[in-house]
Design brief:
By secondary structure, the chain is an alpha+beta fold. It has three domains: 163 residues, 3-Layer(aba) Sandwich (Rossmann fold), CATH 3.40.50.300; 59 residues; 85 residues, OB fold (Dihydrolipoamide Acetyltransferase, E2P). The protein has a six-stranded mixed beta sheet, sandwiched between helices. A five-stranded antiparallel beta sheet has the order 13-17-14-15-16. It has a four-stranded antiparallel beta sheet with strand order 2-1-4-5, with helices on one face. Strand 11 and strand 12 form a beta hairpin. Helix 2 packs parallel to helix 4 and helix 3 packs across helix 4. The longest helix has 18 residues. The chain is elongated, with a radius of gyration of 24 Å. It starts with 7 loop residues before the first strand and ends with a strand. The chain binds adenosine-5'-diphosphate (ADP) and magnesium ion (MG). The site of magnesium ion (MG) has 2 residues, from helix 1.
Length: 327
């Protein structure tokens, strides 16, 4: 049976630990059945936010509404949310099946039914063949899928994932993020995924919520956040942008929107560094006011007129690619 689509809303949610304000009166409406990434540097309040939604941490102030009712005082198991932890926290002495079925056992579901449900979940994450193994007989990626099945067996409306890929090597991380995305689409529920990696957020998210210092700096569709950062922090944290101070104010401009021309064209600059990046070459140049600007130049274009540190150049850009920053 399909569950009705549920909206999750944070209303002025605050978390204090003693004198530390970890989350400062944040508001956000998570779109139903979407993949949202909470993105920000270490210590900005991402995990605290996620744990309050899950019910593993109390809310100091504010409300968390799911489908119109405040769930912030309910115990975790009664919220309609489920959490997958950073360390998968599997029980080492239980088989894969029994790990996945554990929450049903706690609810008093009989052994036959809970094993059936566990097998359904294992099929979903493509692990049926490993059902009898112990966690330490699995690879990191397989353990992660067990943890995922264990969270999904409770049929949550919202799945919460705290840095779920951080323990995996880079190759596996890219494969698993594809699987997470596919699973979210198949299940049609909301995933809220905490990460400090902007490439991970861009690859996965319908919507990115950028946090900094306990507040939301910017939220929106991944492409909007990347292409039109509102603040210096977002521009710098998302990467791929220059922040430049011009007489009219501070602006962000994508590094691939800056061209390197002959001296005399555009804005006078002097090359200070060159980095080969395979498909592109990153050219670092200094302009007036001691400002460093990066131009990401396609490799064939760069090597048709190579530059070296010390060379005078002219930087060119289309003014339409400048985005004014508000802070
Ligand atoms: P993130 O997940 O973005 O790294 P956290 O939500 O874990 O950030 O932490 C936000 C802030 O709250 C940090 O300053 C952190 O030190 C503090 N903090 C987190 N958990 C606790 C706790 N249990 N007790 C006291 N301070 C905490
Ligand atoms: Mg964290």
């Amino acid at each position: 049976m399909n569950q009705p689509i549920q909206d999750l809303e944070l209303v002025s949610v605050t978390k204090r630990y003693g004198n530390t304000i970890a989350v400062d009166a944040i508001n956000h409406h998570f779109r139903p059945a979407s993949y949202t990434c909470l993105l920000g540097p270490s210590g900005c309040g991402k995990s605290s936010t996620l744990r309050m939604i899950a019910g593993h941490e109390s809310v100091s102030d504010g409300a968390i509404n799911l489908a119109g009712r405040d769930i912030s005082h309910l115990p975790p198991a009664r919220r309609g949310t489920a959490m997958m932890f950073q360390s998968y926290a599997l029980f080492p002495h239980l088989s894969v099946t029994d790990n996945v079925a554990f929450s049903l056992k706690m609810k008093g579901v009989d052994v036959g039914e809970r094993r059936n449900k566990a097998h359904e979940m294992l099929e979903l994450v493509d692990l049926s063949a490993m059902a009898q193994r112990l966690p330490d007989q699995l690879s990191g990626g397989q353990q992660q899928r067990v943890a995922l099945a264990r969270a999904l067996i409770t049929r949550p409306q919202v799945l919460l994932l705290d840095e779920p890929l951080s323990a995996l090597d880079p190759f596996l991380r890219i494969r698993m993020r594809g699987e997470l995305r596919k699973l979210q689409r198949e299940l049609g529920i909301s995933f809220i995924h905490v990460t400090h990696g902007q490439d991970e957020a861009l690859a996965l998210a319908d919507e990115i919520v950028v946090m900094n210092n306990a507040v939301i700096e910017q939220a929106g569709p991944a492409r909007d956040v990347f292409n039109a950062p509102r603040t210096r922090f977002v521009a710098q944290f998302m990467g791929g942008h220059n922040v430049v101070a011009l007489p009219e104010g501070h602006f962000a401009i994508r590094t691939d929107a800056v061209g390197v021309g002959a001296p005399g064209s555009g804005i006078a600059a002097s090359v200070t560094g060159i980095e080969y990046q395979g498909t592109h070459v990153s050219v670092l140049a200094r302009i007036a006011g001691d400002q460093e600007v990066t131009a990401l130049v396609p490799d064939t274009e760069f090597f048709s007129s190579p530059r070296s540190p010390g060379d005078p150049v002219g930087l060119v850009w289309d003014a339409r690619n400048l985005h004014k920053l508000t802070a």
